[in-house]
Amino acid sequence: MGEFIDFIGRNLADFWTYTGFANATVGHLIMILVGLVFIYLAVAHEFEPMLLIPIGFGMLIGNIPFNMEAGLKVGIYEEGSVLNILYQGVTSGWYPPLIFLGIGAMTDFSALISNPKLMLVGAAAQFGIFGAYMIALALGFDPMQAGAIGIIGGADGPTAIFLSSKLAPNLMGAIAVSAYSYMALVPVIQPPIMRLLTTKKERVMRMPAPRVVSHTEKVMFPIIGLLLTCFLVPSGLPLLGMLFFGNLLKESGVTRRLAETARGPLIDTITILLGLTVGASTQASEFLTFDSVLIFGLGALSFIIATTSGVLFVKIFNLILPKEKKINPLIGNAGVSAVPDAARISQTVGLEYDPTNYLLMHAMGPNVAGVIGSAVAAGILLGFLM
Amino acid sequence: MNKTKIGLLLSLALMLGLTSCGEQKSNTKLILNEVLIENGSNFQDDYGVHSAWIEVFNKSYTSADLAGYQLRMSNQQGDTVTYSIPKGDVLTLVKPRQHALFWADGQPNRGTFHTNFIMNGSTDTWVGLYDSGKKLIDQIVISANTLQANQSYARISDASEEWEVKGAEESKYVTPSTNNKTLSGNAKMEKFQSHDSAGVGMSITAMGVVFFGLLVLYISFRFIGKASVAMSRRRAMKSKDITCKEEAKEKKLGEAPGEVFAAIAMAMHESQNMHDVEDTVLTITRVKRSYSPWSSKIYTLRETPKK
Fold it and tell me: Is the C-alpha dihedral spanning A231, A235, A241, A244 positive or negative?
């Protein structure tokens, strides 16, 4: 009997070594706490809930401690585990182009087509990428890592994941979480910069209503957009190709079901898988490093530089524009490609100063141009550094 | 334009495209990459024997299968020996940018990678690689006595056009089953590290390209937009019987902003109780009977019921 009790005792002791309680470290607890904060921000403040809920819960999943030497194949970094298989879409970089397909199928480029000069605002905001790139180099990251970190400034999660999976796979978790976190925090980061850089007179500036864009123009945009941008930067093809393809599905008017699938079930499925696995990739043992802290700092800086350069560019651009065609500098922030959050912020801040001045449609122009601009920038970095 | 004409036009375009492709370099994935004829103390095969070898390189970024290919060798005219690479061996699948090494030991019974011929360095040696359709895809001639023992004749780097003797100097070493020029790091990255350590050059270049790309797009759509407005103005002039362009421009015909259309739609909605003439019009449309799951009603009627 004593021997049997001894056996049970040994079994329980053995079982204890497999539990999360026995394997927990301070790092795990910190990351679980971060995950809970993400979920709180999403639920209580509705900060990008579609992203923060999957990422936050993914952080909980990825940081449940377990005995890594037991070969249980449950961790995201253990080859053959379910999470690892789902994570392949991130590491091989095929989730981001599918997200871009959905974005293309849900984006209306009319605002940009009706006022194409707003494309230049979208280009100017990409300074955030290269500002962060230079600072990252100064902090000691190598050019490939710096390029992957810089892309956070494009404010485009899928692009950040795509590029970091190619240039710096070891930093991808931190870069992805940083990019998505700051995209969620755009309503906190951008308004003070916009207020700081604009005068009251500029904030109430009215822009002429955008003209109606014909169906032909809308169909031509993805085709010409693809040909021009990808002939220039072929390395941006996975992202730009899918973006413009999705948009053609939407605008052609004859592939309604395909467009609905791309912007509905497909993008939702990929968003769930992408968010969850990116969150789970923040396993404390891999994620809690000094580099991650630096990446978070650089991410914040890149968003600040991008917003600043967008707003300042509009102010400078206004110097050469005729009076009736001047642009409200409050839409400069929308050049970062956090669609449509950055454009919504232009609208919100604009309404604070003139409740009848609706900037949303105008801001959507640089906002979608930012998507194209950041994908082009990612293609350039990939072409130069790979 | 009828369908026949469109078909002819497309065929012509396709033919032109194919013709222009033909002018480009061969896009063969597998090529001869390095040959060693006299193996004294160089690489050993899996039997521990020093034999001559031929290296094939997959220069593409997809896997390529050598099964069914042929290696042919000749030391004198009219004396060509052919070795057909057997099918059914998974090892003949060469991974992207990887190599396959064939031992020219005259012992094909030792495995897929042992040929039925041997090579002799004292006369000119011709080696050819043929695809499974018996089409020559690559060949190399090594003149007699070009190579000493343990020296190979190889492309300077993998898949490059020029060949050189390797093994004669310390800097040019024989590289069986590996890159002809050893990769010691990321050349591009090192270039940036040494010439642009602050990242200013990269930033200027990349921002220049981003601006240029979007500027070209801007210019294109500026013209397309103008053409579109001109077309809609012409349509509006026609419908209103206006012939004077100045008058049309003054009245801003064809340039009505979206707000105007929204206001018209709202006014119609309010004054006509949501419906216009359609209540009194019966529309008869021809129904196509050709069935396809892609156009089937049962698959497309997926609208959520309205409350």
Answer: negative
Below-50 pLDDT ranges, chain A:
none
Q: Which residue has the tokens 């979608």?
A: A368
CB nearest B203 (choices: A116, A134, A225): A134
Range of the domain at A124: 95-385
CB contact under 8 A, A130 and B202: yes
Whether residue A135 is contained in a domain is answered as yes
Judge whether A372 is closer than 8 Å to chain B, CB to CB. yes
Inter-chain CB proximity A122 and B214 less than 8 Å? yes
Identify the pLDDT of residue B23: 42
Determine whether the interchain pair B200/A134 forms a contact, defined as Cβ–Cβ distance below 8 Å. yes
- Interface check A228 vs B, CB under 8 A: yes
Q: Which residue has the tokens 């370099």?
A: B25
Q: What whole-number distance in Å separates Cα of residue A366 and Cα of residue A114?
A: 12
* Rounded Cα gap, residues A121 and B56, in angstroms: 51
CA distance B37 to chain A (A): 36
Q: Which residues of B touch A208 (CB under 8 A)?
A: 257
Disruptive mutation site among B202, B214, B261 for chain A (greatest number of A CBs within 10 Å): B214
The single-letter code of the amino acid at A56 is: G
- Fold observed for domain B26-184: Immunoglobulin-like (2.60.40)
> Residue A298 contacts by C-beta under 8 Å, 6 or more apart in sequence?
A132, A135, A136, A139, A149, A150, A152, A178
Residue-wise pLDDT for B180-199, tens only, equals 887 666 777 778 878 888 88
Quick check: B209 and A233 CB within 8 A? yes
**CB of B192 within 8 Å of any CB in chain A?**
yes
B300 touches A at CB < 8 Å = yes
Cα–Cα distance between B72 and B127 in angstroms, integer? 6
Residues in chain B: 307
Among all residues of chain B, which has the CA nearest to that of A386? B188
Query: Could you tell me whether strands B125-130 and B80-84 are parallel, antiparallel, or unpaired per DSSP bridges?
Result: unpaired
pLDDT digits (tens, 9 = 90+) for B283-295: 666 655 555 555 5
Alpha helices by DSSP H, listed for B196-241, are 200-239
**Locus of tokens 């004749």:** B153
- The interface pTM score, or ipTM, of the predicted complex is 0.88
| Residue linked to tokens 């060693």 | B36
E strands, B26-182, are: 30-36, 52-58, 64-65, 70-74, 80-84, 93-94, 99-104, 125-130, 136-142, 152-155, 163-166
| In chain B, domain spans | 26-184, 186-284
Residue B94 phi/psi, 5-degree rounding, is: -95, 125
> Structural domain tally of chain A?
1
The first and second tokens of residue A245, run together, are: 């393809």
Q: Give phi and psi for B265, each to the nearest 5.
A: -60, -40
- Let me know if A12 is exposed, middle or buried by CB neighbors in 10 A (0-12, 13-18, 19+): exposed
pTM of the model: 0.79
Q: Where are the alpha helices (DSSP H) in A74-199?
A: 82-91, 95-106, 110-114, 118-124, 127-138, 143-150, 157-167, 172-184, 186-197
Task: For residue A22, tell me if it sits in a domain.
Answer: no
User: Does a structural domain hold residue A31?
Assistant: no
In a domain, A165, yes or no: yes
- CA dihedral (A144, A146, A152, A157) in degrees, to 10, reads 20
